[in-house]
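The passage that follows is intended for readers who have already worked through the single-chain material. We present the inputs for a multi-component assembly, then the predicted structure in tokenized form, and finally a short commentary. You are encouraged to pause after the input and sketch how you expect the pieces to fit together before reading on.
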Amino acid sequence: MKKSLFFGTLAAASALAGFASADTLADIKARGELLCGTNTGLTGFAAPDANGVYQGFDVAVCKAIAAAVLGDATKVRYVPTTGETRFTALASGEVDLLVRNSTWTFTRDTDLKFDFVAVNYYDGQGFMVKKDLGVSSAKELDGATVCIQTGTTTELNLADFFKANNISYTPVNVADDSEAQRQYVAGACDAYTTDASGLAATRATLPDAENHIILPEIISKEPLGPVVRHGDNNWGDIVRWTFYALVAAEELGITSANVNEIGTSTVNPEIRRILGTEGDMGAMMGLDAEWAKRAIAANGNYGEIFAANIGESTPIGLARGLNAQWTQGGLMYAPPFR
Amino acid sequence: MAYAGGVPKPGFRPSMLIYDTRYRSLTIQLIVLVLFAFGVSWLINNVIVNLAAKDRTFDYGFLWNRAGYDINQTLIPYTNDSTHGRALFVGLVNTLVVAALGCFLATVLGVIIGVLRLSQNWLIGRLMTVYVEVFRNIPLLLWILLSFVILTETTPSPRDFRVTDEMIAAGQAPAARMFLNDSVAITNRGMNVPAPLFRRSLGMAGIGEFQISLNFLAIFAVIGASAIVNRRMVRRARAIQEETGVRPVTWWKSLLLLFVPVIALLLALGFHLEYPRMTRFNFSGGIEVLHSFTALLVALVLYTAAFIAEIVRAGIMAIPRGQTEAAFALGLRPGRTMNLIILPQALRVIIPPLISQYLNLTKNTSLAIAVSYMDLRGTLGGVTLNQTGKELESMLLMMLIYLTISLMISSVMNIYNAAVGLKER
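Having made your guess, compare it with the prediction:
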């Protein structure tokens, strides 16, 4: 009995490991479907809408990649993952890529054998508190109870921040975002901490959003982006350049409205190269010439995706800030398509 | 003798391995063993190959690295500078505390309910039936979540306890009050109770990282010694009673023996209580019993007690009715019949299935993460696993630890089972 339990686990572990294959692109084409690891539900980034269809800023990246690879933005199966299960799901081949507000860190990139191929949102960890608590700075949180989602970089940042400021706190490690929200709303913790974008998304879903404030301190750098496994560099390139095609499209003025005609009407060679009217860049990654055109047509360029899902006109209301184009003082900078 | 030539010569032929019933079972067992060994080696090889393919190693070095995260309930000293191995022990202690308290309370409650379920009183009997059916037929996780939600949603927030200068000026009372002469506060985070402190502490003793308070050790030693002396005195009183028929008055001697030494020791150590005080966000000082702990414990106890009650009832019903009738015929009242005649015999039936309930309860503590209680699954199998990415190592180690705990519980219970078993002389 004891033995069979032990070996059963080994069997399960090895069976999972057996799925990971070296040629992700061929697997996806054979399957006819992209497996995209997403958040279980973070409004604006990845959450099912009223019809049960996943929508959001991270989901748009999945759609663009599905459009580029399979020619159909709807051919994505979204695999909801928690903070704890996401990397196991990716490592075991349960998903082809992970677009789940995952922070690019040294150990995840090296020790966990993943590749963070791009950054789709530059974020930082913040705190949300109830307004009537009378707190205006995170440094005033001495002795407070803080809710954290377990299995994230935020746990470590939080410990470091309180230590650096020589103040104390009581952590409440919560398994998922919705339970953390419930505990925060019920008052079981004074503050809720996660990435500032996540806080804004959470705040937008609260019935009394005006009674909650996000404190000004940003205590960490959280570059969030799509992640793939080590070992399949071509697949990594496809994810990276599909994302950069969206960023370059914003910079070059390619939008979902003009993507079908601008390729032939413009004289700008870079636009022509991206959209496949000139040369054949797709072939270098094992895709066809119009991969980027389809990716941009799926949800528009990076700026359009941002505005539609989390921008200032949405309930989440995030400013572009660091995520503006480099020409606008932000960090979004697509390498040249050449 | 004439038939001797007809008897086949005894000897061994390979076909006998299959056709001779003396050897057949051996052959089959050998084949199965070889297949099993093949299966096992294939699995192990598969793990090694896949780990190598993913460029991952299998080692436990991470247990000596800095953990970097904080834990809200630490019964042994721990900071975020401690190692992952230390975090493992913090989680293990948290698991063991819930398991030990849970087993004890579930047994007490289960025995009471099991006995009451057989009560002649119609109402009590039916009520206990309802209890058993309700608790054992709803998944444990739901009970854990329910008790946690009740505890966190119905209790006041710590801010409700605060008294500001304006409130004093306006003669207003705070929204919530502490209990028991301002010593116990129940908030939506936990229960704050006074902490025992010693002015003239004896300090700590132990090996390396594992320290134990000498104060508590001394107190337990004195209580134990008092109890032994008291028992001896009671035994002597009984001997005198059996000899002379007159029982010496012992109650005041018992009181003196049991309480005076402990009180004297506490005074010598300078025992005092530290009361919880309201600070900026939370109560500080005293001991905070987190609701996650209470909710987990309550749910585990209520759930497991339902099963134990059924085991106790089965044990009692296994004792022939004649035993009760004989006890009544001797003039014993129902309570004494139960305690002196029925339960001691029923224990022999009760203990073996009770062991598996203890094992279940211990393993069920791993649902703790649902209410954010940092047990072994929360530290080693949760945060450590995630921060280090060592899934296989963490999971195997965690399984090994649970296995060890379970085997220890069953061996201790087996010893007890042998002790209460039928003694044949």
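Commentary: Chain B has three domains: 17-53, 89-193+287-425, 195-274. Chain B has a mean pLDDT of 87. How closely did your sketch match?
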